[in-house]
Specification:
This protein is α/β, with parallel strands linked by helices. The chain is about 25% helix and about 15% strand. The longest helix has 27 residues. The chain is globular.
Length: about 500
């Protein structure tokens, strides 16, 4: 990483208050301790390169097992003068091998050997932990960036290689990555639940519990609890959109970055009754009729019941998540965008049937088809564009429109960088993540253009977390989005306003 990252920062002073070296040196692997404010609890992490301290696997909620399975997260309580070791990543939440398989698809797309991606082995239902990366050499209250991973809300974990926050933290922020319950254990309401509060928000309750813990304790790591930015990709981004309209999360964060959020062309949340109908079929197929029976199953059995074709969205009930998109928290500043070829890696053969399926969300199919036929040669490329627009690009514009119409601020991007050798995948779903974190895998071809784009994107993201504006001296100007001036920032071989942004196709989507 270039050492110019610390240029002209007015808060570059002495060591972060609350972080102390456990030994005399400052080399990587030395112990670093933080004392939680208002307690006698100490947490021991490790020093990393570039004067960064990492704290891995800090529990923020009780294990969601036994009677706490299918229940809202219970905040962790500490014993007096408890000493907590935080030098190892925690187990991932229950899931199958979906994310390792996704990485194998990407490796193969670049001509590599998929076998280099090992299966996920460390899995446990006791998984509600977070990880923190913090600068040791910066004083004062730093902006806090809280990462929610993707994986369709059925896969993923907080410390996948691309999610390590040490390089972002070196830019002068605190980075936190969070785990939350997934799939049937995290996002499926129980059809036989008699509790007064509707169920199905376990994963969302975990995210709220994590941010609550962060607000209470991040000052001990040098963070500013009044300057929190949630950022996430795919399902993690969709969850953030749901938290923006959650009464229980109101005032907990000030800014949001949604990368390729799984927003869909209609609504990023699913109605409670529809979700309960799906749950009824799932549990009936397994002859599960009571809460006690559901709690008696192993997590492996419950993961195996996840039904193909059902997307585990946050559930809207007007208690935890509001149904109406208009209820969104308009004071939150938003940075949002998607990648040019989001759908390509998930499509099948280059055929007319693929194109017809991609036209399904469009009310005026003829008009939408006419637009893409003039721009793309193959049915596959047309289907990729139609799907990327309907599932990601156009919903991003809609969400930004809600924010700006209420007087808020939004910035929109399109990521379109295609790496060398990546012609089969192009600017695929998830391609922007290594640029945001500066964590390019060794099997990803990374040249000077990629390195320059990485520095630019990291600066944009950190600037936005700091002030709500991605701009700063030395960066290409990124104008805010508005209905009158729908600026889209192009993040690719060059970084500038996207000329001829494909806005017209959004008007042909169904409004159901």
């Amino acid at each position: 990483m270039r050492q110019t990252i610390f240029k002209a920062r007015p808060f570059l002073k002495c060591a972060v208050i609350g972080l102390t070296l456990g030994s005399a040196g400052v080399s990587a692997s030395d112990d670093v301790t933080a004392k939680l404010s208002g307690t006698a609890v100490t947490i021991t992490g490790q020093a990393e390169e570039n004067n960064i301290a990492s704290f891995k696997g800090i529990r923020f909620a009780d294990a969601p097992t036994g009677a706490k399975r299918f229940a809202a997260a219970t905040p962790v309580t500490y014993n007096a003068a408890e000493a907590i070791g935080a030098t190892e990543f925690p187990p991932a939440c229950p899931q199958d091998q979906g994310n390792p398989n996704w990485y194998r698809t990407v490796v193969k797309g670049f001509g590599g050997d998929p076998a280099i991606i090992e299966p996920l082995k460390n899995i446990s239902e006791d998984c509600l932990f977070l990880n923190i990366w913090a600068p040791q050499s910066l004083a004062g209250a730093l902006p806090v960036m809280v990462w929610f991973h993707g994986g369709s809300n059925i896969n993923g974990w907080s410390y996948e290689p691309n999610y390590h926050g040490h390089k972002l933290a070196a830019k002068g922020v605190i980075v936190v990555s969070v785990q939350y319950r997934l799939g049937n254990l995290g996002f499926l309401p129980l059809p036989f639940d008699q509790a007064p509060t509707p169920s199905g928000h376990y994963g969302i309750s975990d995210q709220i519990a994590a941010v609550t813990w962060i607000k209470h304790h991040i000052g001990s790591f040098g963070g500013d609890p009044s300057n929190i930015t949630l950022f996430g990709e795919s399902a993690g981004g969709g969850d953030i959109a749901a938290l923006m309209r959650s009464p229980k999360a109101k005032g907990m964060f000030q800014k949001a970055i949604i990368q390729s959020g799984a927003l869909g062309h209609e609504d990023p949340v699913i109605d409670l009754e529809k979700a309960k109908n799906v749950a009824s079929r799932i549990f009936e197929d397994a002859s599960i009729k009571t809460l006690e029976q559901a709690r008696g199953k192993s997590w492996q059995e419950l993961v195996a019941l996840e039904r193909n074709g059902y997307y585990h969205s946050p559930v809207a009930d007007d208690i935890t998540v509001n149904r109406a998109p208009a209820a969104i928290e308009d004071r939150i500043k938003l940075l949002i965008g998607s990648n040019r070829n989001e759908r390509l890696m998930y499509l099948g053969n280059d055929s007319d049937s693929v194109l017809e399926l991609a036209l399904t969300p469009y009310q005026d199919k003829a008009a939408a088809k006419n637009l893409v036929e003039g721009r793309f040669d193959s049915p596959l490329d047309m289907a990729d564009h139609l799907g990327s627009m309907s599932d990601f690009y156009c919903p991003s514009l809609t969400l930004a429109g809600h924010i700006t119409a209420a007087g808020g601020t939004a910035y929109i991007y399109e990521f379109n960088r295609v790496r060398a050798g990546g012609g089969k995948l192009k600017a695929y779903h998830g391609a922007e993540i290594p640029y945001v974190f500066g964590t390019h895998d060794t099997w990803l071809p990374t040249g000077e253009t990629d390195r320059q784009l990485t520095e630019t994107m990291m600066d944009y993201w950190v600037n936005f977390a700091r002030t709500g504006d991605p701009n700063s001296s030395g960066l290409p100007t990124w104008p805010p989005f508005s209905a009158r001036k729908p600026y889209i920032q192009s993040l690719g071989d060059t970084v500038s306003e996207l000329i001829g942004a494909p806005l017209e196709i959004c008007q042909y989507l169904s409004k159901e």
